[in-house]
Specification:
- This protein is an alpha+beta fold.
- The protein has ten helices and 14 strands.
- Strands 7, 10, 11, 12, 13 and 14 form a six-stranded antiparallel β-sheet that branches.
- A hairpin with a 4-residue loop joins strand 11 and strand 12.
- Helix 1 packs antiparallel against helix 3.
- The longest helix has 19 residues.
- The two termini are 37 Å apart.
């Protein structure tokens, strides 16, 4: 299998999740940054090798054909919005994801800063979230997160594409969602009721036994089995985030998988229910405000990118019209279409 990006990085205590959209004409710039990503990472992290600075780049369906000639990964498509009876998994703008991790936030911040400086006007930031370790790997709801992640060879099998899509072997599908918590409502619940919502004990981090665990618990609806009874797994690297001044507290969900169907089935169970209508009760306290799907190709793909699509390559070498008219101002003074949600301010709405 080709060498993958550092998807299975050591546990981090800090992360920056940077999602950008690529402006028309910005294709060459984003390609240059993707090819230089390992060098940028080394430049920031060389003095702190024990702090495990890594960065994974994921590319969305809407921009793939603007960046590369040839086919795209077999399972790559725009994030599929889900509208349940009570809650919605929204789709929001996002062409490229940079998932930056380390044991130190200053390293994450500096790499994100250098990436942003290199990208310049070629991109707009759709979302930026700074995540942190909270106590003993707990989320802001007080429960340990990521307990069921596979390890070792099972982790590789869960997240990396293989011979089923040989052109893109060693890659991984990446889904991200930003969840904002209603902590006041959550903390009004008793510990026992919180445990029934999650499906695990709060102190001991053990699953509630069969017959006690509700069918609409988070654990129950996120446990998937294949046709042979085997568990279908993903690797999560979620991080808490928050702003005390803004009163915004949440969990940034990020899941890696060898094919997007397993991630999408989990979302269908959560938002639509299994059976239909039995939605995940955690959604009564956590609202998804973003949703994007990306593909993180193998490291070798980024080292030697396919050519630009022929049409874009021709446009890049065309002589501009020296007498092109000035743009006509908008007489209505329309806004920028920002989603206007915390770190999403300035991102164009769909």
């Amino acid at each position: 299998m080709p060498e993958p990006q550092p998807v299975l990085a050591p546990p981090a205590t800090a992360a920056v999740f940077l999602v950008v959209t690529v402006a028309p004409g910005g294709e060459d710039t984003i390609r240059d940054v993707l090819e230089d990503l390992p060098a940028l990472q080394r430049a920031v992290g060389f003095g702190a090798p024990d702090d495990d600075l890594t960065c994974v780049a994921g590319i969305g369906a809407d921009v793939w054909g603007r960046l590369f000639q040839g086919p795209r990964p077999a399972g790559l498509h725009p994030f599929r919005e889900l509208a349940g009876e009570h809650h919605r998994a929204v789709a929001t703008p996002g062409d490229v994801l940079f998932h930056i991790r380390s044991r130190r936030m200053d390293l994450c911040f500096e790499l994100a800063r250098r990436l942003r400086a290199r990208l310049g006007d070629a991109v707009a930031v759709a979302d930026e979230v700074h995540g942190f370790k909270y106590y003993d790997m707990r989320d802001l709801l007080g429960f340990v997160d990521g307990t069921e992640n596979p390890v070792g060879q099972a982790a590789g099998a869960a997240v990396f594409t293989g011979p089923e899509d040989p052109r893109f072997a060693g890659g991984s599908y990446v889904m991200v969602q930003k969840y904002v918590h209603d902590l006041e409502a959550w903390e009004a619940l008793s510990t026992e009721e919180q445990e029934r919502v999650i499906g695990r004990t709060k102190l001991g981090n053990t699953e509630l036994p069969e017959g006690v665990q509700p069918d609409d618990s988070h654990v129950a609806l996120n446990t998937l089995t294949g046709p042979g009874g085997e568990e279908r797994q993903v690797v999560r690297d979620n991080m808490p985030f928050g702003s005390v001044g803004d009163g915004e507290f949440g969990t940034y969900f990020i899941g890696y998988a060898s094919e997007p169907g397993v991630l999408e089935e989990m979302l269908e169970n959560m938002f639509l229910g299994r059976p239909h209508g039995t939605y995940d009760r955690i959604l009564d306290f956590s609202t998804a405000v973003t949703g994007c799907l990306f593909f993180a190709p193998a490291a070798g793909f980024l080292d030697d990118l396919p050519d630009l699509p022929a049409a874009l390559g021709a446009a890049a070498t065309a002589v501009p019209d020296p007498v092109a008219p000035d743009p006509v101002p908008d007489p209505q003074g329309a806004g920028d279409g920002s989603l206007g949600i915390g770190g999403l301010k300035g991102a164009p709405a769909r």
